[in-house]
Amino acid sequence: MTGKTDIAPILRVALATPLRRLFDYRAPAECAVPIAPGMRVRVPFGRQRLIGVVMETALRSELPEDKLKAVIEPLDDRPIFDRALLGLLDWAAGYYHHPIGEVLAAALPKGLRLGASLTAMEERWRLTAAGRAAHASGEPRRAPRQRQLLAALSDAELSAEALEDRLGPWREAGRALRARGWIASAEKPLAPLPQHPLPPQRPPQAGPALNEEQRQATERICQSLEAFGAFVLQGVTGSGKTEVYLRVTEQVLAKGRSALILVPEIGLTPQLVGRFRERFAVGMAVLHSALTDQERLSGWREAFSGAARIVLGTRSAVFAPLPRLGVIIVDEEHDASFKQHEGGFRYSARDLAVVRAQRAAVPVVLGSATPAFETLHNVEAGRYARLPLTRRAVQAAAPRISLIDLRANAHHAGLSTPAVQAIERHLGAGGQALVFLNRRGYAPTLLCTACGWIAPCTACDARLTVHLAAARLRCHHCGADAQLPERCPQCGFPVKTVGQGTERIEETLSGLFPDLPCVRLDRDVVRHRGDMEEAMRRIASGEGRILVGTQMVTKGHDFPNVTLVVVLNADQGLFSTDFRAPERLAQTIVQVAGRAGRGERPGEVLIQTEFPAHPLLASLLAEGYEGFARTALRERSDASWPPFSRLAAVRDSAATAEAALAFLTEARALADPPRGVRLLGPAPAAMAKRAGRYHAQLLVESPERALLHRFLDAWLPRVESLPSARRVRWALDVDPIELF
Fold first, then answer.
1. Which phi and psi angles does 669 have, rounded to 5°?
2. Does the first or last residue of the chain, that is N or C, have fewer Cβ atoms within 10 Å of its Cβ?
3. pTM to 2 decimals?
4. In this structure, how many other beta carbons lie within 10 angstroms of the beta carbon of residue 58?
5. Cα–Cα distance between 26 and 11 in angstroms, integer?
6. In terms of Cα–Cα distance, which of 45, 52, 47 is closest to 11?
7. What are the structural domains of the chain?
């Protein structure tokens, strides 16, 4: 490499490659607009043409002038990332030790990554000269749909959407006319949207009166609208956290600013969108992974232009480009869905929301009935302010919770006699019952009692789950699918199902209460757009008297007529090797219990367990979530687990178990950890074989965040240089929330 060369200007571009660096390019010789950081450019890269984002400009390059290639063209007339958002993404690339180009790509919808315009385009149709002549002469005489289309275009150029509104299906006639040269189309930009947020179209609708705790929480947050503040809105289930979100958003909109609301699950989006649309007549964009690429691009454009004053979405919406951002709200902040723990860029949307709010000097609200232990630790340390909501908004009392000892009570198909009797009692009184089991399918095991064969997944260290209605065996880890056999493939003896899933519980309850409709809510029945809304409609209308569901039913849903919740198999998280399992189990129990008694009638919660004396359950019932959290945090502190230390996990997978462990062993040998940094492992994952590959992990732990990151900065480039790094699939997960 030669000495530095004076060149003005040099564009330093981030490209979506695994390389942890920027690439220098010369600005094009002629350019209609000056190229600034945050703009997309098309550049030559080897034999390819790639789209990247300019991160910075410079007067000098480390490369000699004759080695520098020029940018082919800019794609934007202004930055797609403003300075604050570009800085956040650059920070995230450093914190999560991930290539900046891939981080930027994760923040953009697919259309923009492929070069789509910032401005929304629409297809416009018009008559050609030949078409006008044909229309004037009454042609085509034997094709009335084509004549109608010519007539519609005779007065003005029309969009495809306008033609659809006027004529209904018109494409077939359009293709025939275009082939004859009588009509033509062109892509034209939509009318430009304002660069500043639009004023509300109407005053916000009045909400219900706030109780004293809601009023104080709203005032405290709104006092910080011009500065950063992190607020933990810790409210018991049914305490009216959403109403606080709405009141804060109202104040933000009144100041001409925008609001970003993050939710953990796509299933929660329609319900919350409905609340916000009902209250505010302003533009709103919804962003989540179930949208089509075009829908996500459209939502992004609305946010970028300022037409959408409110953006509501799941994890990746934390990167939404909102001009004049005024507040960020993270609902159910404890939820694991906010952490991207697969694929390339593994980030926490909740944590990035806090950093984004800090950089934008706006408040961030973290709402939950069961805050994550890291969040509670930040409250104790004084970094976050706790805003408690201790009373239910409709004055309903907290549900009465009790345990059912499965060792002392008869049970059939997963339901104990006391649970069935309670369901019968509540249904007879006009209430609804919710039965929770965090295991979908009909049964987790298919067994031959003659030879002991258990239906295995050949690609995973797991058993296949029985899905009886579909007559299939399915793996919930890799997606393997097979026909459900009637007899053992080894000995020919009839096989039987063992254990319960939501499908079997639904079957059992339908047999016990044949005249009362049952609604099941899990990923097997909520598969298409509209499925969740239909299930919610059936429950809200009272058509479904019994609700059976998995984790999906615990997150934010309001079922005012549910008076009984039965938790089946609450013991799943009591003896896990993952140190976070007790926290997740407590959160799940509290969240699902909170679905009971949210209306005017009192609620009851029954928890089935074979370990009624277990300290976790005893603490949770006696002291509630806060008492349980205090005890568990002391145990975490004694063991030096997060949040009292910092973790990073290097995970890999390979075709053989030996190869997976060999790479991590070589990586560990390269490490020279300073005092205060420990490497733990490598070790096979708890499920070593998954989707036909063998998985292992190596943990890096330190009591100090800065010390951990300095070590990773020095160590990772050496790990990447290992020849074995190209023979496995590996990734770094900073602040992992699951230890596989």
1. -65, -25
2. N
3. 0.85
4. 15
5. 6
6. 52
7. 5-113 (3.40.1440.60), 121-189 (no CATH), 212-389 (3.40.50.300), 400-443+499-635 (3.40.50.300), 444-494 (no CATH), 646-734 (3.30.70.600)
